[in-house]
Amino acid sequence: MAVVKANAYGHGDVEVSKALNRAGVYSFAVATITEGIDLRKHGVEGDILVLGYTNPKDISSLVHYHLIQTVVDSTYAETLNRYGKKIKVHIKLDTGMHRLGEMFDNIPNIKRIYGCKNLIIGGTYSHLCVADSLNPSDIEFSRYQIDCFYQTIKCMDDLGLDPGKIHIQSSYGVLNYPELQCDYARIGIALYGVLSSKDDKTKLSVDLRPVLSLKARIVTIKQIAIGETVGYGRQFTADRDTKIAVVSIGYADGLPRNLSCGRGAVLINGEYAPIIGRVCMDQLMVDITHIKNVEQGDVVTIIGQDGRGRISAEQIAKESGTITNELLSRLGNRLERIYSR
Ligand SMILES: *Cc1c(COP(=O)(O)O)cnc(C)c1O
What we know:
- By secondary structure, the protein is of the alpha/beta class.
- α5 runs parallel beside α6.
- The longest helix has 23 residues.
- The protein starts with a strand and ends in a 12-residue tail after the last helix.
- Bound molecules: pyridoxal-5'-phosphate (PLP).
- The site of pyridoxal-5'-phosphate has 13 residues, from α8.
């Protein structure tokens, strides 16, 4: 099950989902009903599971667009049931993350969900909250969650309640617990060829290759003298005569502002150009004193490969104190998406 929520982690959900359709993937997960509707309107085929809450006033759209809704607890199941039309659902079980899901051991409530005659239950799932960690106490907790999940599935089977397709792994669930044999794995970040964090060790090592490069252009080039400053707050002062370039990307495009003042760099002609001063909303400035033959309009690589230089999403996420999931999913709509095969 390809997780294409948040605009496919910034990659463009329609294009990604259609490419996956062409590759034979017919099962998707989104966070919201709006995301699901948008995929349908653009002709995406297959199952689309809404992982999050849908406002009861929008239930009719679940039916109209053939979306599968997550049952976030038994009370919500009864709300969906009252709508009076058949709705496809997957039941979510809370096995310890304490976000969404009916408590795995509340069998009376699980029975109540099955008592909802308008719900077509096609699956049952849970979510692991420390599957990315290989430290022993985290492994113990994940194993506990997995045990709780299978215990409940067995109990449902024994009671004659068909759980349908079962799934508990996301990217790190597969990378660290590859032995689990569920009907689906909900793959998000790994689908885009990156890990959440640069230093993550995983039990299974897969040759992940990033799908995305992020590029901008050089807007203008200028020479500043020693002692002059650059940008808002005058946070950069030239300690020598300096050649700078203004680059056409800023924090409104999702590039974190805390890459300011040398914490981040970009690639120009295969060389690293440090970000100087503060990242602005629509631009940033870099030091190019050491780089030859730079011209207005040249391509700047923010994420990706340029000559012998390479900047990964993992690296930028680390420099800005976050994970690639956040960095990529916040890439702005203003960025033109260009797809190649
Ligand atoms: C976002 C999400 C996923 C995908 O997680 P990744 O770590 O990106 O693979 C899977 N399941 C649920 C419930 C999610 O919210």
